[in-house]
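Dear support,

I submitted the protein below through the web form. The confirmation email said the job was done, but the results page showed an empty box. After a refresh the structure appeared. I'm attaching both so you can tell me whether what I see now is the final result or a partial one.
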Amino acid sequence: MAHCPFDFFTDGKKHNICLVGGGGKTTVIYELAAMWAACGRRVLVLTSTHILQPADGSFAADATAVHNLWQQGRYAVIGTPELSTGKLTAPPQDLYEALHLQADVILCEADGSRHHPCKVPAENEPVLLPDSDIVLAVAGMDALDNSLQQACQRPQLAAELLGCSLDSVIDEQMLAALLLSEQGARKNVGARTYYIVLNKCDLLKAAQQEEMLRLLVGAGMDEHRIWLRERGE
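What the results page shows now:
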């Protein structure tokens, strides 16, 4: 099982975490949920937009099903099934309100990227939970060396933000800018604590990893709030 390097994972506190950006949010959510559940914590997973409905029996249709999963040492996923897509949308508000005080950890997919490794949010994105205390931005390192048009959701917004063309090839500086901008992945973070997951780092050369870290840390990110995550972790 993967190891999460972030301080919040072992601090024993209640957390409400929203994941934004591109490049594997759903994978990271379920990975974190499984790790916390294995530690005996009551984990609630949901979305404020859309998330793939799990096929492992962790979906819970009501509060009783959630408690049954918690008693089994498992995480619980709540949401409203969307039959046409096989995905879940946001859960009924009364169900969330009945459970959020009882959960030790809440993980919410608060942004969509249509499988693009990076993105710039539209006006109505992301949909952060008002009571969330942490935002986790995810970016896939397979964005590098591809054009904005190919690798970025809402490439026109990205081009405007970066001051370049749709055909511009994404390099470390551009990807760091998308992650650090308050018009990019940091949008609406406010007073919440901000962390970054650089996904698929096994695709990078060591020099590229070092350059990404240099740019992010040089712009003020705490190195301990950056996860260089490899596929299969």
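Response: this is the final, complete result; the empty box was a page-load delay. Residues 44 and 76 are 5 Å apart (CA to CA).
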